[in-house]
Amino acid sequence: MNITQLKTALILSTICFFVACSPKIQNPEIQKLEDQKAVLKETTKLNSLKLALENELIVVDRLSKEVEEINDEASKSAKKAKSVSDDLSDRPGNTKLSSKANKAAKKAAKHADKARKVNNQLGKSNNKVKSLQKDIRKSEDRLSELNKRIDFVPNN
After folding, report:
1. For the domain with range 27-152, which CATH number is right: 3.40.50, 1.10.1450, 1.10.287, 1.20.120?
2. Which of 76, 68, 66, 78 is nearest to 106 (CA)?
3. What is the Cα–Cα distance from 123 to 114, expressed in whole angstroms?
């Protein structure tokens, strides 16, 4: 290799080195558009979370009313079973009363089981509401940060 070729190779390798090591140069307008795209994506996610939260709140409201009704039924059934049981203890040999007490106890147990199941559903739904609210707060924080980034991008 002669000196000219050596100089040319050295200059080209130096240029390649600087290009490879230099920070990525990006147009601020492109960065702003990319940030706006991220804001739109996060806004869409936030809206879907809010919609899911509203739907879950409707479920919670429905389950709350259902729990109230079922608990009333269970309470009435338990009172009736206790009343019939008390009557049976006053007249222990009465088979009709014994049968009635058995039916009332089964009905009370059935209502209590149904109340337990609906209460569990309500608890799960409340947990889902809390989770959605937490996700909404996180999404709102991310959206706020993205909006700050857009505001700080210099306009040329």
Report:
1. 1.10.287
2. 78
3. 14
pLDDT tens readout for residues 90-137: 777 777 777 887 888 888 888 889 989 999 999 999 999 999 999 999
How many C-alpha atoms does 52 have within 13 Å on its Cβ side? 17
The domain spans of the chain are 27-152
Cα 75 → chain centroid: 33
Contact 137, 50 (CB under 8 A): no
d(CA 51, CA 18) in angstroms, rounded, equals 51
Residue among 123, 156, 147, 150 nearest 42 (CA): 147
Distances in Å between the Cα of 122 and the Cα atoms of 44, 115, 127 are 28, 10, 9
Distance of CA 60 to the CA centre of its chain: 13
Q: Output the furthest CA–CA distance in the chain (Å, rounded).
A: 124
- The Cα 134–Cα 114 span in angstroms is 30
Q: How many Cβ atoms are within 10 Å of 149's Cβ, its own excluded?
A: 16
